[in-house]
């Protein structure tokens, strides 16, 4: 079988493949997201964003906690899977759209909460990674919460090869991704007014594609918005085993 010609086409072929969609649609929300939603129940006073909704597991968790949700994914097969997963909820509670993380289809200050799990590292370049961060800050209200996890460069799978620019790595199929040190990710979030609240976790997960270093935390958008000072959030990073 001939692979799609471009990296973008190869990535789309993977994410739209029936077996990939089936695997993601079978997943349920991580216990830590359920705990976050319970802990921030008082903050769930406005719409929530599920950015990179995949098969819909986090969208369902948000709906079950009473949120009205806008779910966004770049890939049409994942959009359809999320629509199927949320069809049992009342009409008007959820909107599922196709869209990119670096151009979120939503107004400024639209959301009281956003979930962005496993998305930012899929940016093909560090420039687009930073554009995604700016977009998250744009669509979050002052005081809103961002639940984030992303892969980092703190531990690199040997199958990855360096790309054309610092922070870019290329998978064996030729698809690029962006992996930055956790501290650099946090500093970039701080420049757009998103600062960690509570513990910041880093750890390595052994996945079927290889070991991946993960940064996971919740962040609060500055109440006054603004660009921040770029020095990162308070509290540092906990290195979890």
Low-confidence stretches: 226-241
Distance between the termini: 40 Å
How many strand elements? 12
How much beta, percentage-wise?
25-35%
Number of helices: 7
Overall geometry:
globular
The largest sheet, given as strand count, sense and whether it forms a barrel, is: 9 strands, mixed
Radius of gyration: 17 Å
Instruction: Find the structural class using helix and strand composition.
Output: alpha/beta
Provide the succession of SSEs.
Answer: HHHEHEHEEHEEEEHEEEE
Q: What is the arithmetic mean of pLDDT?
A: 91
> Helicity level, as a percent range?
25-40%
Set out the fold topology.
Layout: H1 7-16, H2 18-25, H3 31-39, E1 48-51, H4 57-64, E2 69-73, H5 76-85, E3 94-98, E4 111-117, H6 126-139, E5 140-152, E6 161-162, E7 168-170, E8 176-178, H7 182-191, E9 194-196, E10 201-207, E11 210-221, E12 238-239
Parallel strand pairs: 1-2, 1-4, 2-3, 4-5, 10-12
Antiparallel strand pairs: 5-11, 6-7, 7-8, 9-11, 10-11
Helix pairs in contact: 2-5
């Amino acid at each position: 079988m001939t692979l799609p010609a471009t990296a973008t086409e190869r990535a789309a072929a993977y994410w739209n493949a029936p077996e990939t969609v089936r695997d993601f649609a079978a997943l349920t929300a991580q216990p830590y997201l359920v705990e976050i939603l319970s802990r921030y129940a008082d903050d769930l006073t406005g719409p929530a964003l599920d950015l990179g909704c995949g098969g819909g597991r986090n969208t369902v968790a948000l709906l079950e906690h009473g949120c009205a949700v806008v779910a966004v994914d770049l890939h049409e097969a994942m959009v359809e899977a999320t629509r199927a997963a949320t069809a049992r909820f009342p009409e008007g509670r959820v909107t599922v759209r196709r869209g990119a993380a670096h151009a979120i289809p939503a107004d400024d200050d639209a959301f009281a909460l956003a979930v962005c799990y496993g998305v930012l590292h899929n940016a093909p370049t560090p420039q687009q990674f930073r554009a995604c961060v700016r977009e998250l800050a744009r669509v979050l209200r002052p005081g809103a919460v961002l639940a984030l996890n992303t892969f980092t460069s703190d531990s690199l799978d040997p199958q990855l090869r360096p790309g054309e620019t610092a922070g870019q790595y290329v998978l064996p199929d030729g698809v690029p991704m962006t992996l930055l040190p956790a501290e650099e990710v946090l500093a970039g979030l701080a420049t757009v007014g998103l600062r960690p609240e509570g513990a910041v976790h880093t750890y390595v997960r052994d996945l079927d594609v290889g070991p991946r270093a993960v940064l996971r935390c919740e962040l609060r958008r500055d109440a006054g918005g603004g660009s921040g000072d770029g020095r990162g959030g308070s509290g540092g990073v906990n290195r979890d085993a």
